[in-house]
What we know:
Blueprint: E1 2-6, H1 10-21, E2 25-29, H2 33-40, H3 51-60, E3 64-67, E4 79-82, H4 97-109, E5 114-118, H5 126-141, E6 147-151, H6 161-166, E7 171-174, H7 178-188, E8 198-201, H8 203-234, H9 238-246, H10 267-280, H11 286-298, H12 301-309, E9 318-322, H13 337-347, E10 351-355, H14 360-367, E11 372-373, H15 377-380, E12 386-389, H16 401-407, E13 412-415, H17 422-427, E14 431-433
Parallel strand pairs: 1-2, 1-4, 2-3, 4-5, 5-6, 7-8, 9-10, 9-12, 10-11, 12-13, 13-14
Helix pairs in contact: 1-3, 4-5, 8-10, 8-11
Amino acid sequence: MKIAIVGTGYVGLVSGACFAEMGTDVVCVDTDAQKIRGLQQGIIPIYEPGLEEMVKRNQSADRLQFTTDLESVMDGLDIIFCAVGTPAADDGSTDLSYVMQVAATIGRLLKHYVLVVTKSTVPVGTSELIRAAIRKELDKRGVDLPFDVASNPEFLKEGAAIKDFMSPDRVVVGVDSEHAKKIMSTLYHPFLLNNFRVIFMDIPSAEMTKYAANAMLATRISFMNDIANLCEVVGADVNMVRKGIGTDARIGGKFLYPGCGYGGSCFPKDIKSLIKTAENNGYSMRVLKAVEQVNDDQKKVLFGKLMRYFNGHIQGKRIAIWGLTFKPETDDIREAPSLVLIDQILAAGGKVIAYDPVAMTEARRRLNDAVEYAENIYRAVEEADALIVVTEWKQFRLPSWDVIKSRMRTPVVFDGRNIYEKADLSEYGFDYYAIGK
């Protein structure tokens, strides 16, 4: 089987490498010539554990190729995946311009039957728009070639994407023909030999499933953050509450960890898109609007704690920040709580000294020289008036607190991910503030 994946962002590159790993001939296509040249030379544009090794291994085996020219690889293709970006528009809707460009290109280049599969996150009804765009280009050419469309949303967690792809909980596929179903069954069979978990459904349901899944997870996060804020007011410990409700089989323990808000490329964008889709169809997603508002407010919680500690004045104070990414094991800082916090500190006249294990380059693109960048956690806290932990990287868990205290001007820690214990830090002479305790 030969497939092409259009778009070499996070989803497209991970998908291409993993399909190739299972023996499929894969060509990844992108209009960004510089990115493609880099990939051809083994330069990976994103950080994802295990991805670089997998890409290089399959390039060496001639199972994975990279090109800017879709037309040159059309012969013999069985499937074309669309994995281009779907950024949020200013009004919260999803910008489908890249998706529709891909569809039009396919229509212009189509020579034989191909299954066109959307892997980008797109609103319900997009597959029909893709079908119409391809058909329009075929009509312009005066040809009538068969093709099918399908939806195959991704459920990859950044930082664990390889594992998620190779051993998925489920694979959701939306189809409207038996031929498309057969092709997708063949493609995914090697991944699921031990427990074949492909869930076939109609295309609109598949498109909706992606949004519904992310919306539910975001809801759990915002719910626990709301509970955490109330715990602080009434004197409860949110960690105890989390354990208490997480043991209920009806609830479970996942996505019940309070913190300083969710970020990343999926949750914020997908929540906005689902709210907008509902509005366009005359319905209001009342719960999700609250989820979004709670999350926006939660990203400001750490700054509020910092300002209260210093009685509203941080002018000229040096604030150390550990962690810039929205979660560990990725270099993704899109919609990260750290960015909101840094903007607030700078606006209040404070100085920021930041450290992240993998996202320093990305941070410089976003923040330029607005902050200082430290080479490690200990350099970050030198002469610092406060330390704020924003991302729960493993290497932050057991630092040398006596060294840190000796380097800080003011021994105070604001823990945005509840990875420390107040009693432990108090022994070293730190003031300690967490979320929901």
